[in-house]
Amino acid sequence: MKFRVSAVQYHLHTIQSFDDFARQSEHYIRTAEEFEADFVLFPEFFTTQLMSIGDDQGKALTINDLPDFTDRYRELFQGFAKQYNMHIIGGTHVIRREEKLYNVAHLFYPDGRIAEQAKIHITPSEITGWNMGAGEGLQVFETEKGTIAMLTCYDIEFPEIVRMAKAKGADVIFCPSCTDDRHGFHRVRYTSHARAIENQVYVVLTGTVGSLPTVDLMRANFGQAAIITPNDIPFPPQGLLAEGELNNDMIITADLDLDLLYQVREKGSVTTWRDRRTDLYPDWE
C-alpha cells in the first residue's frame, strides 16, 4: 500500500476576515491536490490566525473567542475534504467543552466524516497562558489508506503514547506542531525521529511559520515540516523522505510505502518493535 502525503508550513500573518483564512487554507489544499496528495497536514494552532481579525474596536481576539469559529472551521474543512477528495488533518483548533478549552486535532474524511483527537499532554505555557485542558484518551483512525494516529506537538515527546498508538495499529503518526524557538522545535523534531525508530512507523510533522504580532503567545514561530521514516536500508539514510526550508511558507510532499514498514518490522537491520523486552516493561498491545 502506497499513498501520498503533503505537510503545510502554514504562514501566520494578520488577516482581516474569515474569508482571508479560508482562501489561504484552500491555496495549500489546491497545491496538495496538484501533487495528487491523499493526505494533507496543517500545523497545530494555525486557526489562531483568526484571532488577528480583531473585534469592533480593532483589538485582537483572545483564546476564549477562538471556539466561536468552530462551526465555520469544521464546515469549511469538511467541504474542502469532500471537494478535493482527500483526507485533511486540519491542524488543531481550540474548542470549548463544559467551559473548558481543549486543543483538538481534526481529521476530515473525503466522505464528510469528522474525527477528533484532543491533545493529551499540555505544555506549561498552554496551562498558564491559556488554561488549556488535557485530552483523556487516545484513538487511532481507520482510513482507506491505512490506520493513522494524530498526536499533537508535545505528545510526540512521550514514548508511551506513541507505543500505544502503534499497539492499536497505527502505521503513520501525523504530528501537527507549533513551536516558538529553536529549542522547542528541536525537541519535537528529534523525538519524532526517535518515535519513528522505536516503533517502525512513519511520522509526518509540520509547524507554523510567520507571526501574529497582536496575538498573545503567537508572536514568534519557528517551524519546518518533515516526513520521517525508520532508519533502515529501504529508507533514506537520515530517515527523511522530505523536509521543508526552515521558517518558509511552503508545502512538502512524499510517498509512504506501508509494505516497507512491514518488511523492516519482520527482517530489518533491527527489529525494534518485535524486540521489545515486555518481560521487563509494559506491553501496550
From TrEMBL:
Keyword Transferase applies: yes
Domain of life: Bacteria
Gene Ontology molecular function, alphabetical: acyltransferase activity
Keyword Transport: no
Gene3D superfamilies cross-referenced by the UniProt entry: Carbon-nitrogen hydrolase
Keyword entries, A-Z: Acyltransferase, Transferase
Pfam families per UniProt: CN_hydrolase
Segments forming domain CN hydrolase: 3-258
Similarity comment: Belongs to the carbon-nitrogen hydrolase superfamily. NIT1/NIT2 family.
Name by which UniProt lists this protein: Acyltransferase
